[in-house]
From TrEMBL:
Lineage: Eukaryota, Sar, Alveolata, Dinophyceae, Suessiales
Residue ranges that the Swiss-Prot or TrEMBL entry lists as coiled coil: none
GO molecular function: nucleotide binding
Pfam families: GFO_IDH_MocA (PF01408), GFO_IDH_MocA_C3 (PF22725)
Domain Gfo/Idh/MocA-like oxidoreductase N-terminal: 4-119
Residues of the GFO/IDH/MocA-like oxidoreductase domain: 139-253
Protein name, entry field: Gfo/Idh/MocA-like oxidoreductase N-terminal domain-containing protein
InterPro entries assigned: Gfo/Idh/MocA-like_OxRdtase_N, GFO_IDH_MocA-like_dom, NAD(P)-bd_dom_sf
Taxonomy, superkingdom: Eukaryota
Family the UniProt entry places it in: Belongs to the Gfo/Idh/MocA family.
Length: 347
């Protein structure tokens, strides 16, 4: 079965979605809708030739042939659109970030009532590397017990004055969570994944830099999981990085590209152990494992998985639950930042 997809909006990130669909066999982009005259036609010509153009979102949702909808619009209008898509009984793949845990619950409840799949577009979870990393984290002999997860996701776009002035990520009316929502979403999800989706007992977050509207542009955050911990930095004003470390009681697993891989269809990681040198004059680093995997394209794997769920007629409730947990943590971090980095309990 080939799932018929529709796209609401022609945001730049939707080009990646089109590229993903072009790489798989169980999905096709059947229609694109835009509220701007002619924009859908131009987008289709460049990204998905042969798709049908609609001049409104409502027209696309009224098309009975469309089975699943991808939503790449600004956060400020996502909730309304997800509810409309669910009401039309079409499956929902929505871009992150989302507005609040309350909004996420509205979306999930609406999709559940309609019997349709809900999933956010966190692509790295669908990379085969995750399974390989999980096997290391559960290897008590080599890695020990997971103690800490640290990650960084930063881009330097806000150092460009034109980008900072015009990009929606800097505008509270469109993307109120700034770098926390756009980038920190991935840091939080990685940490939750590592701790098997146990919510942290408490979190702390500090907006180191922000706009006049209090949209964060550079921040640091911490999470407590009982006696285990997580931390991250995300920024629109620092050099491009998307690295992560999992610190065990015996070894450390590290990767340089946890969100978007450096190679299209391959991904790598290292497991290392630091030792004491002679007379403690050096701390030699020993590589226990240096792995590169042929993974396929993670963005395409996500769409393939989602389309497979649509074709099966079954709804996988784990995906919406992960979205909700991620947003709960983000909400607590916003509350913490508003109170000067105070630790906020999630229990």
């Amino acid at each position: 079965m080939v799932v018929q997809w529709g796209i609401l909006g022609c945001a730049g990130i939707a080009r990646k979605f089109c590229a993903s669909v072009s790489r798989i066999d169980n999905a096709v982009i059947a229609a694109v809708a835009s509220r701007t005259a002619g924009k859908a036609d131009d987008f289709i010509a460049e990204n998905c030739p042969g798709s049908k153009a609609y001049a409104s979102y409502e027209e696309l949702l009224a098309d009975a042939s469309i089975e699943a909808v991808y939503i790449p619009v600004p956060t400020s209008v996502k909730t309304e659109l997800v509810l409309k898509v669910a009401a039309a009984k079409k499956h929902v793949l929505v871009e992150k970030p989302l507005a609040s845990a309350a909004d996420v619950k509205l979306m999930i409840d609406a999709c559940k009532a309609a019997g349709v799949q809900f999933m956010d577009n966190t692509m790295f979870l669908h990379n085969a590397r995750q399974d390989s990393i999980k096997s290391v984290l559960s290897d008590g002999g080599m890695f020990g017990d997971l103690r800490h997860v640290d990650s960084t996701f930063s881009i330097d776009c806000a150092n460009d004055e034109a980008w900072a002035a015009d990009n929606i990520r800097m505008k509270r009316s469109l993307e109120p969570l700034g770098c926390l929502g756009d980038l920190g979403w991935y840091n939080v999800r990685l940490t939750l994944w590592a701790f098997q989706y146990s919510l942290p007992t408490s979190v702390s977050c500090t907006y180191v830099e922000h706009t006049e509207e209090m949209v964060p542009t550079h921040l640091m955050a911490q999470m407590r999981f009982g006696n285990k911990t997580g931390s991250f930095m995300c920024s629109f004003k620092s050099a491009f990085r998307n690295s992560a470390e999992f610190v065990g009681s015996k070894a450390v697993l590290s990767l340089e590209d946890f969100v978007v891989t450096g190679k299209l269809d391959a991904a790598s990681y290292k497991v290392t152990q630091t030792t004491f040198g002679a007379k403690d004059e050096t701390f030699p680093l020993v590589t226990l494992k240096d792995e590169e995997l042929k993974t396929g394209v993670q963005h395409a794997k996500l769409v393939e998985t989602f389309s497979g769920l649509v074709a099966s007629g079954k709804v996988d409730e784990t995906w919406p639950e992960q979205t909700y947990q991620t947003q709960l943590v983000l909400d607590a971090m916003v509350k913490s930042a508003e109170q000067g980095g105070m630790w906020i309990s999630l229990q």
